[in-house]
């Protein structure tokens, strides 16, 4: 059974790999035996993750890359292929959360959210899928959010562009899953709830009022702990999920149930 989750000999590409959930997942891939291509805007951050992966005995390649720029994405994927030889796994993790409702946010902020959260997944998939089709194998995991299906009236948590862009990720996941299953490619999504990352540490986690309300509403009674998304990501990236297609697995401590 353990061999089902073994990623030895596999190569994973992770976007937004320099911090937060992306960095955690990249290191989890290495612990499972995979070499990793690290894409992020911050070279210093992916250099740090690269060192951690290499300390585990796996290879890592970095590409400082704006994943909303098609030419940069194309070059980054080519670099990974040239250096590591193939790509088995794509974790589309890069994302942002822009606060505000439709009555208050700017069109520029709206576009930025959709570019980062949705367009980036289109671009990375565009250049990885042809390679996966040739090899008749691939595992694509898109990081959506519980907020693709759950909203919040708390002013601190109103992010309409986040709700809608993460919902779009689910539509993209289903479409890709149906189209590419015939090529041995699985496409699934994960929906994390509240994790403490660079994106949330200075906002949501600094509000005692919000955390108190969140904990009271959550069946688990707490936010997620570091690493609690990794098991689901490894499952969807491994042969343990060979017949799982187009699914959305929410990792929220039961919060979406109430």
Automatic annotation (TrEMBL):
Keyword Oxidoreductase: yes
A matching Pfam family: adh_short_C2
InterPro entries xref list: NAD(P)-bd_dom_sf, Sc_DH/Rdtase_CS, SDR_fam
Gene3D superfamilies: NAD(P)-binding Rossmann-like Domain
Keywords: Oxidoreductase
Listed GO MF terms: oxidoreductase activity, acting on the CH-OH group of donors, NAD or NADP as acceptor; quinone binding
GO process terms (BP): bile acid metabolic process; fatty acid biosynthetic process
Keyword hit for Oxidoreductase: yes
Family membership: Belongs to the short-chain dehydrogenases/reductases (SDR) family.
Record protein name field: Gluconate 5-dehydrogenase
UniProt source species: Anaeromicropila populeti
